[in-house]
Amino acid sequence: MTTTLTAPRQQIQAGSDRSLSNRTSVGQTVRNTFTMAYRGLLKIRRTPEQLVDVTVQPILFTLMFTYIFGGAIAGDVVSYLPTIIPGILVQTVITTSVVTGVQLREDMDKGVFDRFRSLPIARIAPLSGALLADTVRYGIATTLTFAMGYAMGYRPEGGLGSVVLAGLLVIVCSWAVSWIFAFFGVIARTASSVQGISMIILFPLTFLSNAFVQPDTMPGWLQGFVNVNPVSHLVTAVRELTNNGVLGADAVISLVGAAVIVAVFAPLTVRAYMRKA
Amino acid sequence: MTHEWAVEAHGLVRTFGDNRAVDGVDLSIRTGSVYGVLGPNGAGKTTTISMLATLLRPDAGEARVFGHDVVREAQVVRQLIGVTGQYASVDETLSATENLVIFSRLLGLGRAEARRKAAELLETFGLTEAATRPLKNFSGGMRRRLDLAASLIAQPPLIFLDEPTTGLDPRTRAQMWDTIRELVATGSTVVLTTQYLDEADQLADRIAVIDRGRVVAEGTADELKDAVGNQSLQLGLVAAADLGSALDIVTTFGVPATTSPEARRITVPVTGPDEVTDLLVRLREARIAVDSISMDKPSLDEVFLTLTGHGVAADGEDDTAGTAAAGDVACPTTSTREEALR
What we know:
The complex is a heterodimer.
Chain A: H1 26-46, H2 52-74, H3 77-108, H4 112-118, H5 125-151, H6 159-187, H7 191-207, H8 220-228, H9 230-244, H10 249-276
Chain B: E1 5-16, E2 19-30, E3 34-38, H1 45-52, E4 60-65, E5 68-69, H2 74-78, E6 81-84, H3 96-106, H4 111-124, H5 140-151, E7 158-162, H6 170-185, E8 189-194, H7 197-203, E9 206-211, E10 214-219, H8 221-228, E11 231-237, H9 243-252, E12 258-259, E13 265-270, H10 273-285, E14 290-296, H11 300-308, H12 319-326, E15 329-330, H13 334-341
Parallel strand pairs in B: 3-8, 3-9, 6-7, 7-8
Antiparallel strand pairs in B: 1-2, 1-4, 4-5, 9-10, 11-13, 11-14, 12-13, 12-15
Helix pairs in contact in B: 3-4, 8-11, 11-13
């Protein structure tokens, strides 16, 4: 192992001869984000065990919930599928977005983030790239949930196009929600505390919704919450798409909600990330 | 036109809670030079570098890199610097090539260009064979080299090396030194922090000695060494009672001696054997019995004793706790030496 530097002895360009800018352009921000997303994908490929949650959970939950509740709620398993598959889909994918925050926390504790901070790149890129790469995970979870449903006899009335559209809607909304957990990831001290905080928020949100049962079977006060819960709107939007092929008001509400979350949490997260430096 | 100063810092302050990690640091680093920042753990070296490298915002004071303010024009400064941290800041789960390609892409190189640059740097740093292996299996020296390679992608005119050789074996350390020398040959300005006097001596044109967040001395290696003497003489006395009179004699030579905690040993910076002979003769005349003598190169510890009047803090972040316990006492003449240096 020899380390003689047979380097090009050419002189480096002096600082004052370089063209320099104190601002990052939108184009550069997008390019940096995609490069960081590429890094995220490489990491997923190197550590495939990270994908356990998005592979096992959709299969396990779909099987469990459908066979447990199917007979009681809808009379038989197959007629429960149009209700439960969209519900499970939303629950699984949104739960997966917690992992984004946890992994971001772990990642930030490593020295490589110091280098990202010292590079002349868009400040948001290390975060937005990581979040973008994770849409691959949501895609896997979405595909597996639909595939499980299909295997159990689910035949969406809306057709394949609507199913794809529904899947994209869920992925986009989960990506938006992942900014919330990314924020926790940045401000939290440890990865396990991110997991803890996130689960406390996530469990009521996903279960106190129309994901598994019709809200009219619930007590009035609970119905009030369930009906305003954004998760309910997303579940309804997915049901309308997959079962009727309709892109309804709930889809619009979900997308607007997603946009609001990003508008609030993306700047908060970036600022917290910069301050943490 | 090139800027005369690569770094100009005035009164940099950074506090963490009650701890003033950096407490008014001034630095002027000439373009094209190698500048050593020497100090023990917790002295504020890394914090200073972090502020200069835009990783930390100063609480007070200001700093410029090639004339650009590190706070207001942070993004410009980032285009002019390369930073190699104390701990390798590369991606553990990825291979060496993947790391360099990603950094190159982030710096705006095209896909093919990034691959070529990565291959070129791996070749330069002797990492080609290990290019596709995950970093988990890399030795400490290989990681540092990769880390340095990553800092050089954009060929920055100013490179910060934060303790580049801490924890490396002597051979790898010597290789790192060669690499740093080559860097300077290409016209880069290098700022390196170190805990080792000999490292600063080997590489740096000028050295700032930093302690408890302050620059306590600044100058060329020779100037610093003059302050502590080229060599130091350790005298073991037979009787502790003779210590006072022995110190008196040493002081007449005009050098700042230090006594050890067990108080039977005196450490005296000396310029050469002649001075030792004179000193021993004087001790004999005064009938002070000497038990043992030995000669040493001045250690960082002695530089510190001489320049700061207290020893190197115990290993750890918090140096205020350690120094009080160090127990070494320096002669009053210390301060005059220190002033002469500034």
